[in-house]
Design brief:
Structural class: alpha+beta
Helix content: 10-25%
Number of strands: 6
Radius of gyration: 20 Å
Order of helices and strands: EEHEEHEEHHH
Number of helices: 5
Strand order of the largest sheet: 2-1-4-3
Largest sheet: 4 strands, mixed
Distance between the termini: 30 Å
C-alpha cells in the first residue's frame, strides 16, 4: 500500500511510495522525515526512526511538466472509489463504455469501475444498447487530483490532517 507522500526538495508533491521505500530513502540520507505517525517508530539494532507519513527529498529532482495524469486500471478504480458505475456496489474490474472491439480505447473518459456482474452483463455493447445507465460520468483527473486520490482524499475535506491547509 502506498501511504507515504514524497515531496521534492522544493516541497512540491511528487508521488506516494510504500513505507519500506520511504524508510530506505531516509536511511540512505536521500530524504528527511517531514511528518511522522505519532508514537510509531521503526527500530533495529542501531536504528531508531519515526514511521514517516511525509518525506522530503534532500536534492531537487527535475520533473517534466505533466498536463495529464497517466491512465491506469488502478487509477480508474481509485478515481471511482471502487464503486460500480452501473449499480454502486464494490467494483473489481474496469469496463470500457465504448468497447475496445468497437474502437474504444484505454482512456479516462472511456473507462469506468464496474462490478464483475455488470461488466459481464454489459458485455460487448454500449450502455445504451445494454439498457444500463451510468450513475456517474467518467472524468479525467488532473495529475494533482490523481495524487490526492491515491492518498485516499476525495476533496479538500478528505485531506489527511497533516496535509490539510489552514482555512
Amino acid at each position: 500500500m502506498r501511504e507515504t507522500l514524497v515531496l521534492n526538495a522544493s516541497f512540491e508533491p511528487l508521488s506516494t511510495v510504500t513505507l519500506r521505500r520511504a524508510v530506505v530513502l531516509v536511511l540512505q540520507e536521500k530524504a528527511v522525515v517531514e511528518r511522522a505517525h505519532p508514537g510509531l517508530r521503526v527500530r533495529a539494532a542501531e536504528i531508531d526512526l519515526p514511521v514517516p507519513r511525509v518525506i522530503r527529498l534532500c536534492r531537487y529532482v527535475r520533473v517534466p511538466f505533466r498536463r495529464r495524469a497517466p491512465w491506469s486500471r488502478r487509477g480508474v478504480l481509485v478515481r471511482d472509489q471502487h464503486r460500480c458505475a452501473y449499480c454502486g456496489r464494490r467494483a473489481t474490474t474496469v469496463d470500457h463504455v465504448v468497447p475496445r472491439s468497437r474502437g474504444g480505447g484505454d482512456t479516462w473518459l472511456n473507462t469506468v469501475a464496474s462490478c464483475a456482474e455488470d461488466n459481464h452483463r454489459k458485455a460487448d455493447r454500449t450502455p445504451e444498447q445494454a439498457g444500463m445507465r451510468l450513475l456517474n460520468s467518467p472524468f479525467e483527473p488532473t495529475p494533482s487530483d490523481a495524487l490526492l486520490l491515491a492518498l485516499g482524499a476525495a476533496g479538500r475535506d478528505g485531506l489527511p490532517e497533516w496535509l490539510a491547509l489552514p482555512a
